[in-house]
Amino acid sequence: EVPVIFTDRTRGTSKMSGAIISEAVFGVIKMKLKSLFNRIKV
User: Fold this and answer.
1) So what's the pLDDT on residue 18?
2) Using CA atoms, how far apart are residues 22 and 16, in angstroms rounded to an integer?
3) Rounded to the nearest 5°, which phi and psi values hold at 9?
4) What does the pLDDT look like over 1-42, one tens digit per residue?
5) Angle at the Cα of 12 from the Cα atoms of 10 and 13, rounded to 5 degrees
6) CA distance 30 to 22
7) What is the pLDDT of residue 13?
8) Residue 23: per-residue pLDDT
9) Distance CA 37, CA 30 (A)
10) C-alpha separations of 9 from 4, 29, 31, 39 in Å
11) Cα separation of 42 and 29, whole Å?
């Protein structure tokens, strides 16, 4: 097997905006709350 080595970015900027990060964080929280409420209903 050949290891894959990723180097740090030297030029340019990330395309990931704050909106994408917050959408991901709140999506995970939303899924967790949904699973907790489904467990309580049963």
Assistant:
1) 92
2) 11
3) -65, 135
4) 899 999 988 888 888 899 999 999 999 999 999 998 888 765
5) 110
6) 12
7) 84
8) 96
9) 11
10) 16, 30, 32, 44
11) 21
pLDDT for the residue numbered 15: 84
Residue given tokens 């995970």 in the structure block: 28
How many Å apart are CA 27 and CA 24, to the nearest integer? 5
Residue 41 confidence (pLDDT): 66
CA 20/CA 14 separation, integer angstroms: 12
Residue from 23, 30, 28 nearest 38 by CA: 30
User: Which amino acid would we find at residue 22?
Assistant: S
Tokens of 13: 């900027």
Q: Both tokens of residue 18?
A: 């704050």
Type of residue at 1: E
